[in-house]
Amino acid sequence: MSSLLTIFISAVLVNNFLLYYFLGICSFIGVSSKMESSFGMGMATTFVMTMTAMITWPLYHYLISPETGLNLPFLEYVIFILVIAALVQFVEMFLKKFFHSLYKALGIYLPLITTNCAILGMALFIVIRDYNYLESIVFGFGAGLGFTMVIVIMAGIREEYAYSPVPAVFRGAPLALLTAGMLALSFMGFSGMIAP
Amino acid sequence: MRKIFYKGLWAENPILMQLLGFCPALAVTTSALNGLSMGLATSFVVVTSGVVVSLVRKLIPDQVRIPVFTIIIATFVTVVDIILKAYFPAISTELGPYVPLIVVNCIILGRQEVFTSKNPVHLSILDTLGMGLGFTWVLVLLGSIRELLGLGSVFGFQVMPSSFETWIVMLLPGGAFITLGLIAALYNYLNQSDRRKA
Prior knowledge:
The structure holds 2 protein chains of 2 kinds. Chain A is an all-alpha fold. Chain A has one domain. Chain A is built from 9 helices and no strands. Chain B is an all-alpha fold. Chain B has one domain. Chain B contains 8 helices and 2 strands, in the order H-H-H-H-H-H-H-E-E-H. Chain B has helices spanning about 1-10, 20-25, 30-55, 65-85, 90-95, 105-115, 120-150, 175-195; strands at about 155, 155-160. A two-stranded antiparallel ribbon of chain B has the order 1-2. In chain B, strand 1 (about 155) and strand 2 form a beta hairpin. In chain B, helix 3 packs antiparallel against helix 7. Chain B is globular and about 60 Å long. The interface of A and B includes residues 23, 29, 78 and 173 of A.
């Protein structure tokens, strides 16, 4: 139990996907200018991440793995990316049919998730760190929540300075990157929470 | 023809202008050598997958083009990964999961969508090579600055005098974001003064 909690806190705060592993920066810089859409994006990502963890773990252990599966390590990346693309597609159809209001709320952000490197990164980390099934799901969920939290904080800051007189050369990406740098520095404060 | 190659280096630089591919740019550039290896690995994938996409561009139905591009890219990333593991195990360990993550580097998929799926092979090679090298030089610059201030060396050679107090922050995520932010601002500044002269 304590190891599950450690994995969860580490994924949300200490080794945050955005600010520590730099995964998902594209959508972070691109989308995070409004809090509402950032939250939608974060929720959709969390959902797909948890589902990806649930599906790629058995696939890796019973199909790809050299020890317990059919020994197909060279197909690892191709299979993972196909699973993620198919999953996003499925989730989209499922939500459209059964949870139409949620589908409408997520809108354009669902298909965008396929190219979010945080998802593939998470699937790879699960393999590298040799998590068991439950740990993988907790890790996927925590990573998604951490992503949501940071992208919403970032959107809040960007909304605040949207109309500030910023020097022209800093407008847009440079300022977003500097803000992210400050956020990353402050998140380092969490690093003492878990012994390395 | 020349323009197709050169636009990737400066005017349409994939990182600084198109704002794509931030993840590997920030994650692996703790040293100049890491930046160079990541840049060259990505260039290899973008050029080879560009050639294949350009060759089969008339055979791919429009609806399934994105999955097809992705599978082609994932195949070449697997090739790079296996080559690195076999011949450069040190670099492979250093780059870790960021080698397989080249699959989802938006620069590569972006080039297939925008250029190679609509143009003949020789133009595709020029375009993707320019983009690959444009990506590489930003990574080498970012890696050099971070290594210089964080460790006092560039490409492993000691540059700073031994009395130099190293800036640990440059090796941490915060330093990566701030350095790239300043490089992006400088890029905007240079483009702005170009426009004023013209």
